[in-house]
Design brief:
Elements: H1 30-44, E1 48-61, E2 64-70, E3 82-88, H2 89-99, E4 113-123, E5 127-135, H3 140-157, E6 175-181, H4 185-199, E7 204-210, H5 217-230, E8 236-240, H6 255-262, E9 268-271, H7 280-284, E10 287-289, H8 292-388, H9 391-476, H10 478-483, E11 488-490, H11 501-505, E12 510-514, E13 517-521
Parallel strand pairs: 3-5, 6-7, 6-8, 8-9, 9-10
Antiparallel strand pairs: 1-2, 1-4, 2-3, 4-5, 11-12, 12-13
Helix pairs in contact: 5-6, 8-9
C-alpha cells in the first residue's frame, strides 16, 4: 500500500485553492498502516546518509553496540530528534582498522559529536532504524587520545610506564640494534653514518628492518623487538621511522609495542620523524628525538661521552700534577734561597773570623819581631860585657846568656806555632762551609726524589683502583655470573624470573638461561619429600 500525499493546487495569486470538502480518512488495519508508512519511507528516504549527531548513550548488544543519537545542539533535550542505531561487530573491526586504533571502544563515543554513515531501514515493530557503516576519520584524534589514556593507566598500574626512563645511562655503546622501515629514504643517511662508525671499529650495528604501516606493522615491529632482545650483550636500541604520513603514526600507538619497549633491559631511543607528533612509543622510550638524525646524534654523544670524560679527567690530573710540582718547586726555591742566605751569612762570618785571625797573627808577628830585636840587643850588650869583664864574669854571663837565649827561642817558637795555627784556621772555616753546602744540596736532592716518588705512587694507586673497579663491575654483570656456572630460571623466554621451587612446580615449562644459550625443561614433582 502506498500513500498519495497531495497539497491543494494554488490559485492564480499563489494562494492555495479552497477545498470544498476534505476527503474522508481511510480505514486501515495496523499492518496496512505500518506497511504503507514503510513503503513511503523506503521510497522517499535515502538508503545511506552521513548523519551529524550527538551520541547520547552507548549500550552493549548481542553482536555489537546500540548507539542512541540525538540532536547535535549540545542540549541533548528529550524533545529533540532521537534515533537508535546499531553498530555491528564486523563494522567495528573495519572502523578500528581505518582509524588505526586497535582497542577502540564505542563507549568512547558517548557524550561526543560524530558524523556517521548510516544505512537506513524501516522495521514493522521498531520503525525507522539505522546501521553504522563508517565513522568520519576526523573523530580519530579524540578517540586516539582516550585510547592512549587507557593504555597509559594500564602501563602505570603495571609499573612499566617509566621503566625505560629509570634505566641508567650506559657507560659505553659498542653494540647497537636499529629497527627501521624497509627501504625508507630517511633511513639512508642514518645507515650511511652508522656504516662509517662500524667500519672504523667504533660500533657494531645490527640491522632489523620492519613494517611501520599497514595491518602487519604491529606484528612486524614486535618480531624485530624480540630479535633485538635475543641479541647478546646489546647496549642500546634505536627505533627510527624516517618520514611518512602523520596518519601512519596511529599504528604505533599500540599497547603491545609499548609494553615490548618498556620491558627491554637496555635503553631504547626513538626517532619517529615528526617533531609535532609525540607518540606513545616516544613517551615510554628511554630517550625520544624528533628525527632519525637526532636519534643518531644521541647515540654518537653516548659513544663520545666516555672519551670526553677521560680527556677531562686526564686534563684535571695533569693540571693537578703541574700545580703540585709548581708548589713544590716554589717550596724548593724558597729552601734554596734560605740555604743560600744562610750559607752567605756563614761565609761572611767565616771571613770576619779569618780577618780577625790575620789581625791577631800580624799583632803576634810584630810582638815577636820586637822581642827578637830586644833579645838581639841584649845579646850584643852581653857580648861586649864578655869582652870587657873578667873571665869570672864570663862564666856567669854565659849562664845568663844561655838562659835568656833559651827563653827567647821558646817565645819565638810559641809565636811561630800561633801563626801556623792561625794560618790553618782559614782552611778549617772554608772546609766547614763546603761541608754545609754539600749537606744542603744532598737534602734538596733527597726532597725532590721523595716528591716525584710520591706523585708516581699516587698515580699508580689511582690506575690500580680504576682497574680493580672495572674488574669488579665485570664480575657483577649477568653475563659473567652466567659464565661462572650459574643459570637464570624464567617462566617464558622473555618472562619473569622463577625464584622458588614452588613457583617452578606451578609452571608447565621453564627456561634455563646459561651463558651460551637457553634450555627449556619441564619441572618434575618428586613422589616423596627428600629427607
Amino acid at each position: 500500500m502506498t500513500f498519495d500525499i497531495r497539497s491543494p493546487s494554488p490559485t492564480g495569486d499563489g494562494t492555495p485553492a479552497c477545498v470544498p470538502m476534505a476527503p474522508a480518512p481511510p480505514t486501515l488495519t495496523l499492518r496496512a498502516l505500518v506497511d504503507g508508512v514503510a513503503s513511503a519511507v523506503r521510497a522517499g528516504a535515502p538508503r545511506e546518509a552521513w548523519v551529524d549527531a550527538a551520541v547520547v548513550s552507548v549500550r552493549r548488544r548481542s553482536g555489537g553496540y546500540a548507539l542512541e543519537l540525538g540532536e547535535n545542539d549540545g542540549s541533548h533535550s528529550a524533545a529533540g530528534a532521537r534515533l537508535e542505531v546499531y553498530l555491528p561487530e564486523r563494522n567495528l573491526i573495519a572502523i578500528r582498522q581505518k582509524l588505526a586504533i586497535a582497542d577502540f571502544d564505542p563507549a568512547d563515543l558517548e557524550k561526543s559529536s560524530v558524523v556517521a554513515r548510516l544505512s537506513l531501514n524501516f522495521h514493522p515493530r521498531f520503525h525507522l532504524q539505522g546501521t553504522v557503516q563508517d565513522l568520519n576519520p576526523a573523530i580519530g584524534a579524540s578517540l586516539l587520545a582516550k585510547s592512549l589514556d587507557r593504555i597509559r593507566a594500564r602501563l602505570r598500574a603495571d609499573g612499566l610506564l617509566t621503566a625505560q626512563s629509570r634505566l641508567p645511562t650506559p657507560p659505553d655503546i659498542r653494540r647497537l640494534a636499529v629497527v627501521h622501515p624497509y627501504g625508507a629514504a630517511g633511513w639512508a643517511d642514518v645507515a650511511k653514518e652508522l656504516g662509517r662508525l662500524q667500519t672504523a671499529g667504533v660500533l657494531e650495528v645490527f640491522d632489523l628492518p620492519a613494517a611501520f604501516e599497514g595491518t602487519t606493522a604491529v606484528s612486524s615491529l614486535l618480531a624485530a623487538l624480540q630479535k633485538a632482545r635475543d641479541l647478546p650483550s646489546l647496549d642500546a636500541l634505536m627505533l627510527v621511522r624516517g618520514g611518512g604520513a602523520s596518519s601512519g603514526l596511529a599504528v604505533l600507538a599500540n599497547e603491545d609495542l609499548a609494553r615490548a619497549i618498556c620491558s627491554l633491559p637496555f635503553p631504547a631511543i626513538t626517532g619517529i620523524g615528526h617533531a609535532s607528533d609525540r607518540g606513545l612509543l616516544d613517551e615510554v622510550a628511554w630517550r625520544a628525538a624528533d628525527t632519525p638524525s637526532k636519534a643518531l646524534k644521541l647515540v654518537v654523544d653516548l659513544i663520545t661521552q666516555p672519551a670526553e670524560t677521560a680527556r677531562k679527567n686526564w686534563s684535571g690530573i695533569t693540571k693537578f700534577c703541574h700545580d703540585a710540582i709548581g708548589v713544590q718547586r716554589q717550596s724548593i726555591g724558597s729552601l734554596l734561597s734560605a740555604a743560600a742566605a744562610s750559607n752567605f751569612r756563614r761565609i761572611s762570618d767565616s771571613g770576619a773570623l779569618l780577618d780577625q785571625a790575620l789581625s791577631s797573627l800580624r799583632i803576634r808577628l810584630a810582638t815577636t819581631s820586637a822581642n827578637l830585636g830586644h833579645q838581639a840587643k841584649e845579646l850584643e850588650r852581653l857580648r861586649a860585657d864578655l869582652i870587657v869583664e873578667a873571665p869570672r864574669g864570663l862564666d856567669i854571663q854565659s849562664a845568663e846568656t844561655e838562659l835568656a837565649f833559651g827563653e827567647g827561642a821558646r817565645s819565638a817558637h810559641t809565636s811561630l806555632e800561633s801563626l801556623f795555627i792561625g794560618l790553618h784556621r782559614h782552611a778549617e772555616v772554608s772546609g766547614a762551609t763546603a761541608n754545609l753546602l754539600e749537606v744542603q744540596s744532598n737534602a734538596l736532592a733527597t726532597l725532590g726524589e721523595t716528591f716525584f716518588a710520591h706523585i708516581t705512587r699516587a698515580l699508580d694507586a689511582e690506575a690500580a683502583a680504576i682497574v680493580d673497579l672495572e674488574r669488579t663491575l665485570r664480575s657483577l654483570s649477568v653475563s659473567d655470573t652466567l659464565g661462572r656456572g650459574f643459570a637464570l630460571a624464567l617462566s617464558t623466554r622473555d618472562g619473569a624470573l622463577v625464584r622458588t621451587a614452588a613457583e617452578a612446580r606451578c609452571q608447565p615449562r621453564i627456561f634455563l638461561r646459561f651463558a651460551d644459550g637457553m634450555v627449556a625443561v619441564r619441572p618434575e614433582i618428586p613422589s616423596s619429600p627428600p629427607h
